[in-house]
Specification:
Blueprint lengths: L1 E4 H6 L1 H9 L4 E5 L2 E6 L31 H8 L4
Parallel strand pairs: 1-2
Antiparallel strand pairs: 2-3
Length: 81
């Protein structure tokens, strides 16, 4: 894995990002000390993307949901709770 100093990385950033996206990771260093590793993100396969709402219709919330446990809560904290 190649190492580039900050100045060199800034100068060739577009080229380096293209290489990283193709799987060629690299390290950026400052004064010879490695600081960060740049690597491609693993994007999910389109068919495997999790979507919000995937359980829509699978769960039922009782009509009295907001009143459930009311007696226990009042017993612990008083009627004003």
């Amino acid at each position: 894995m190649r190492t580039f100093n900050i100045h060199e990385a800034k100068t060739h950033l577009s080229r380096l990002i293209e290489k990283a996206a193709k799987g060629e990771s690299f390290i950026i260093a400052k004064a010879g000390k490695p600081l960060v590793k740049v690597t491609a993100l693993e994007a999910p396969v389109p068919g495997e993307v999790r979507r919000t709402g995937f359980l829509a219709g699978a769960l039922k919330v009782p009509a009295d949901f907001d009143k459930m446990g009311r007696a226990e809560i009042e017993a612990m904290f008083g009627e004003d709770a």
